[in-house]
What we know:
By secondary structure, the protein is an all-alpha fold. The chain has helices spanning about 5-30, 40-45, 50-55, 60-80, 85-120, 125-155, 160-180, 190-215. Helix 7 runs antiparallel to helix 8 (about 190-215). The longest helix is centred in the middle third of the chain and has 37 residues, at about 85-120. The model has no long low-confidence stretch (mean pLDDT about 90). Keywords: Membrane, Transmembrane, Transmembrane helix.
Amino acid sequence: MIITSLAGAGGIGFVALGVLTNIGYLRGGLPAPGSGKPLKEVTDALAAMGDRLKRPSVLVPATWLFLTFFAAGLLSALWRGEARTDGWALAGFAGVLMQNATFMVVEALRFGAASAAVHHRGSVPGLWAVTNVLFGFNQAFLAIALLGFTVAGSSLDFIPTWHAWLGYASAALLFVSSAAAPYNVDGTNRIAITGLVGWLGWATWIVAYGVALLNL
């Protein structure tokens, strides 16, 4: 299988697994960053998670694998040896790698907060604050990935106009949401809808790019 086909399948697989993982977290009662729940309610929910946190998290490494192959294949498809587009494509690839690294820390913090809720409740406020802010800041890397790959793909006529505008709009929404991350330290996110719409746009953008890669 050539890298572009693997990348196309990886992009679509990333979105599918991401949705399944988040459904698993929601059904398990995991407090979401920015949910605005009181700290005591968050702590009680984390203490009660148990294996309900572990089971969905088994899928998480596969999402990073799929997303990395998607980004690598997309980079190879957009690489032309031209400075005007290659730099943008590299920026997109860097954004994906940074989001993978950052979200790995977010996932690990969830386990740390859940363990603290059981064994040392006084540590939960600090861990929860770091989780909230880092989760918000991570959206900047999604915006970089969207912007870089969208500019490169649009400049090469690799993607249609609607796909490009979806990328630009989603990048703008995610960047605005990331800039508000310091104000989410207590778990309250007054512009959470901005980040959610941006994330949905990012997921749709990936699926569309995945289909394009499969059709090469």
